[in-house]
Amino acid sequence: MNRRDSIKTIVIGSLASGLVLEGCLPKEKEAIYKNIWKYKYGRTPEELQRDLELLNQVFFSKEEMNTIRVMANLIVPPTAEGTIEQAEVPEFIEFIVKDAPSYQEVLREGLQWMDATATEKFGNAFVNCSETERKSILDQVAFANGEKTKEEAFFATMRNLVITGYFSSEVGINDLGYKGNQPNIWDGVPGDVLEAHGMSYDKDWEAKFIDQSKRNDLAEWDEEGNLIT
After folding, report:
1. Which pLDDT score is estimated for 80?
2. What is the pTM of this model?
3. Out of 144, 171, 206, 229, which residue is the most buried by the measure of CB atoms under 10 Å away?
4. Which residues of 187-197 are buried (b: 16+ CB within 10 A; e: fewer)?
């Protein structure tokens, strides 16, 4: 066992108090523990324990998860930058409904409504309908204004969750083209500003302290704390 696996075992062991940690985990449990490791940063032990308990629960059936996946792909279609699957949107929604149970009834009843409508209109479950047929069902509830019916509230809730799940993921952020704060080249106080204050850089020292060719080098210190790079 390497050092990383040892640390993982220690972390999981501390989280799993009150839960049985099997020696050989089934695939579902193994995925759960991988997720705990993946998202452990910035979480207190209590928060991680709660996350573990939620991840051990199952709310949506496999059929419901597949319906969510198909619906989510209609709300945010695949692009060259990424897909709903890559952003793990269905898994995100599964986690949210366990973390916030107020979502459960509206989403489950909404999924049932979609299948019942698809069966009535097209003789198939929603996922087995053509894309045109699926869109025609969603068009019935996608453009509501003001007070919403239960079906319209379902679609609005699902749309918000899909968009949140996708654009808060690494895939979605890349899709947005968001770069965040990035370092630029700083070569000292501009000359006109220095001149306005009656100051200037000593040319002999300027080359020593401002060297853009080394801007990506990591600083190193000797044992006495002296900067050597």
Report:
1. 87
2. 0.64
3. 171
4. eeeeeeeeeee
